[in-house]
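hiii so um. not sure if this is the right channel but i have a protein structure encoded as tokens and i wanna go backwards to a sequence. like what aa goes where. can anyone help
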């Protein structure tokens, strides 16, 4: 099978230098040379011309580059196809995620499938979700998940609420009316993020024409901090309310809700499919 020696070889071939390859790999030049000497010994080939001016690939070395790239591609395809049979479910976790559903399902699922394992992978950037992630729990949003090969299974709905600054007079009210928000800016998700957004916006403008609406593309800490500095209100699903601190969540006299459930890879493993099929009591 493909191994790290071959990765090192490709980097050396690309960089044309043992020392540069070592820097890229965060290992010493001597460690790189040792790997390449061992590789040449195994193959009984000379892959590099070594001179005082640097290194170049031999004819055999150039041919080997092409073969290694083919092997690299084939190995990736094998891993991709065999992932269907793996015994581990990889759950992506990040700023926008809790694990309530997954924890509840796993409690019973793991008893039925005792050899199965759960692994958590950090998501630093939702625009670039790691390839090994099978499941992500969260509030439904079309983007950026659909363009990265995820579908969505709904388990429940989460009502939309309004997050208000804790020092606002609105924070003292138990339930808000739309009229309470007059003269304030209400920040709501854009249509590209939440397809329900346009419907919500139209309804709000119909019922409260004096309401000022501003859309946002990404829900993150920067958004919350900027909103707080400007005294803006935020439209947020109750399930994401934990992200809005120090804001205070308030119920509103409306019926807007959003789906909550699991995003899953379209090509997820057989074990993952069984997990998705498991229904909560």
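sure thing!! here u go:
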């Amino acid at each position: 099978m493909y191994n790290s020696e071959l990765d090192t070889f490709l980097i050396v071939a690309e960089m044309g230098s043992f020392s540069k390859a070592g820097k890229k790999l965060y290992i010493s030049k001597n460690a790189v040379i040792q790997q390449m000497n061992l590789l040449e010994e195994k193959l009984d080939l000379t892959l590099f011309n070594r001179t005082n001016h640097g290194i170049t690939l031999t004819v055999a070395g150039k041919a080997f580059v092409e073969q290694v790239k083919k092997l690299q591609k084939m190995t990736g395809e094998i891993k991709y196809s065999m992932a269907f049979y793996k015994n581990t479910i990889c759950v992506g976790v990040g700023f926008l995620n809790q694990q309530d559903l997954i924890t509840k399902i796993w409690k019973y699922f793991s008893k039925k499938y005792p050899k199965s394992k759960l692994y958590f992978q950090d998501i630093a950037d939702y625009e670039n979700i790691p390839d090994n992630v099978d499941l992500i729990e969260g509030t439904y949003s079309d983007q950026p998940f659909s363009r990265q090969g995820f579908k969505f299974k709904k388990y429940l709905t989460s009502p939309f609420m309004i997050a208000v600054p804790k020092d606002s007079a609105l924070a003292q009210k138990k339930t808000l009316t739309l009229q309470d928000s007059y003269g304030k800016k209400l920040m709501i998700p854009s249509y590209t993020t939440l397809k329900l957004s346009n419907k919500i916006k139209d309804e709000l403008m119909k019922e409260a024409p004096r309401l000022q609406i501003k859309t946002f593309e990404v829900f993150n800490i920067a958004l919350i901090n900027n909103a707080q500095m400007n005294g803006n209100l935020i439209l947020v699903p109750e399930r994401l309310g934990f992200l809005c601190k120090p804001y205070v969540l308030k119920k509103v006299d409306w019926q807007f809700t959003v789906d909550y459930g699991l995003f899953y890879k379209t090509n997820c493993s057989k074990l993952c499919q069984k997990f998705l099929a498991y229904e909560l009591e």
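oh and The first strand starts at residue 48 and ends at 51.
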